[in-house]
Structure formats: structure tokens, C-alpha cells
Amino acid sequence: MIVQIPAQIYKSDARGVFNSAKHNRFATFNFEHYQDISRKGFGSLKILNEVILAPQQRITRFISSNTNVIILPLFGGIEYKDNFGNEEFLRVDQIRVIAADDDLEVELFNPYDGENVSYLEIDFQMSPQYFKNYFQQYKFDITAHNKLNALFEIEKALGFIGIYDGRKEGFYTLKNAENGVFVFIINGAFEIENRLLEAKDGLGIKKISTIEWEALSENAILLVIEVPLKF
Fold it and tell me: Running along the chain, 231 residues long, what does each successive block of 10 average in pLDDT?
């Protein structure tokens, strides 16, 4: 008997697109005026946006209370500032984890003269009993291939990143059987649980204990997030 596993693929070409002279934003889930019944958040994971910021441009985003936010640079570096007085420069091997117990205004700036920068913004909604206020930076090793590297842990959500050579395999076993897992392809292509995913595609899976994958290209990069489905 074949067991049917609840899963949904979020193709990159169906993302919500926001364009301006300053930046382009690509939304995997519903965000602002992009609303689609098939693009609701996955459990507590409510926002997963790719942002491309033009040279010498800055943008502002408002983050609502009781939200955990991850800022993950993909190319270049960005200057971060918020209305609580936190300021720093983030490189591609660093992430910023923010827990906003009050409404928060964030400004991100591309300091380079001649090149775009890009980053992911990942938001989790948490209920008050699981919420703690903090502002932390993590550094991770982007040179270690063919393994998952711990990226963040915020309450019940866990994040990992992996860079794989062609035809190398990997797997992840969930820490909590009640959680789901969301995979986002940063670069290259993977076969994940017999599904083909290419750059900037996402895959949400529920009712599974372990997921397996195989890289189909060199220097393929994926983001694996264990997500609370109840919060």
C-alpha cells in the first residue's frame, strides 16, 4: 500500500512579484497585495521573500508584533538598522534573527555602488507563550559541502542550510513528529522525495518523519526548515 504524504510544491515562477526602482521582491507565500488561496503560509512560517536591492538603495519594512524574523543574505552584504537602535552589516555567511514583541520598523541598505545585493526575509508567527524578545546574529560555514549546517533555532522552528555536489544525497529527520518541513532551493536543482525542485522553488511536507534528497547539479544549495504546524 502506497502512503500518500501531504505535500505542496511552490514553483518560483508563480511567486508574487513586487517591482520598483529600488528593489524587486518575490514572495513565496501571500504577502501584501499578492493573495492566492494556494499560497497560504505553511504552519507558523508566514513569509518567505527573496529581495533584490539595487545599488545605493534602501527600503523599509514594518514587522508586526509577536513575529520572529530571519534576514539571510544570498549575494553581497546589506546594512541593517531598526527603530530600536540596532545597526550592523550582514555578509553572506551571517544571518540576523529578530524577535519583535512590539511592532518593528526595519531599514535595509545596499552600500555598494555597482551591484545588486539579494537576501531572504523569513517570518514566523508565534503565540505569546512561545515568544521571547531577542536580537541575535549567527555565523555559519558555507564551505562545508554535502552536509546540513545548523542555521537558526527560534522556539520550535529549526533552520538548516546545505551545499551539495552533483549526485550527492542527504536527509533530514524531524525533531518533533507534529511539525512539518519546508524546503527552499537557493541554487541549482534537487530531487526531493521524488519531486523535482529547481532554484527558488519551495516544497512543504506534512506527516513525514524523514525527508531525503539528491542534488542534480554542482554547488546546489537548499534551505531546510522544520516548522511548527500548531502555534
Answer: 76 96 97 93 96 97 87 94 89 84 89 96 75 53 86 87 96 96 98 97 97 97 95 71
Q: Which of 206, 210, 24, 28 is nearest to 116 (CA)?
A: 24
pLDDT at position 1: 41
24-18-122 Cα angle (round to 5): 75
Note the pLDDT of residue 12.
97
Question: What residues have CB less than 8 Å from 153, skipping those under 6 apart?
Answer: 159
Cell numbers that stand for 21 in this block: 526602482
Within 39-155, strands assigned E span 45-53, 58-63, 67-75, 78-82, 87-90, 94-100, 104-109, 117-125, 135-139, 148-154
Rounded CA-CA distance 189/187 in Å is: 7
Domains of the chain as residue ranges with CATH = 7-227 (2.60.120.10)
Beta partners for residue 181, in sequence order: 205, 226
Q: What are phi and psi of 128, to 5 degrees?
A: -55, -35
